[in-house]
Amino acid sequence: MATIKDIAQAAGVSLATVSRVINNGPKVGKDTRQRVKLIMEEMGYRPNANARALVTKRSASLGVVLAELHDPFFAMLAHGVETVTRKNNVQILLSAGSIEKETELRAIEILLEHRVEAMVVHSKALDDKTLIDFAKQVPGFVLINRYIPEIANRCVWLDNVTGGRLMAEHAINQGHKNLAVISSQYRIDDPNHRLEGIVNAVEAAKLSLPESMIEYATPDQEGGELAMQNLLATGAEFTAVLAYNDAMASGAMTMLQDHGIAVPEQVSVMGYDDVLLAKYCRPKLTTLRYPIEMMAAKAAELALKYAAGAKPEEGLTFKYTPTIVKRDSVVRV
């Protein structure tokens, strides 16, 4: 493989001139620049991304830690990051954390082994102290979908308490008094915060939400089916179901329809996230839009900015709020 020295010799210029051409630097004539680029192409020269990063003071790559690679939600997150990296000519390195402490830790360590100084991390299993320590070590360390007060200026997060409240308020405003909830079984903040918001809205409306009306399962379609099956088996009476995410809502609707219960005529169902699936459910799913692509793009911009030397501003954080998307799965009673 050709080296920078080979290019300099073939072009009859100095190593410094070749370096300036590679990094789009000044003080190189137009003809010389074109000649050096042509020789680089003919000799199959590929610049060392890490070496270029040292010269330009810009990260050559941005690492992303996702919970799962197959989940549509995280595909949207990755796409949001990619819109920024493409614009900045930066490559993405993906690593999966699987919402497990050791796996998340290893995912971050792998990125560090690749000398990544800008990273967007979705971590639910690691404790606050570990993530704060990483933020001290890695200049461009940014958390997405998590808030830690000590590093608030490195957190891009969603107000899930408000999201849960908006869900319940929408159902209650449509006349639903008997609500059921299907939530994630994972012991992380997101389901806890959404349930907190739901309970706040229910209490504000002077209604009740017994524990027997809350079922927990894996946050996917199969989990939604199982949670709904368990609710139906208890003989519980409800007119609206609030689901942890769109996948669980979709599974719940399937189970209801399999039992001859019409959605939304007999039971309304509401999701959360507004992934592509929500538009193609039957009926189309009323849900909360989680602006994850927008948030991911912001997180990527911050990571690259901090990695380039900018200091996170004190007293700043990046909080987003979900919004209701009204479709066909919730009706007035």
TrEMBL record:
Record's protein name: GalR repressor
InterPro entries with a match to the protein in the record: HTH_LacI (IPR000843), LacI/GalR-like_sensor (IPR046335), Lambda_DNA-bd_dom_sf (IPR010982), Peripla_BP_I (IPR028082)
Keyword vocabulary terms for this entry: DNA-binding, Transcription, Transcription regulation
Annotated transmembrane regions: none
One example GO MF annotation: transcription cis-regulatory region binding
Domain HTH lacI-type: 2-56
UniProt organism field: Alteromonas naphthalenivorans
Protein's UniProt keywords contain Cell membrane: no
PROSITE patterns in the record: HTH_LACI_1 (PS00356), HTH_LACI_2 (PS50932)
SUPFAM superfamilies: lambda repressor-like DNA-binding domains, Periplasmic binding protein-like I
Keyword DNA-binding: yes
Superkingdom assignment: Bacteria
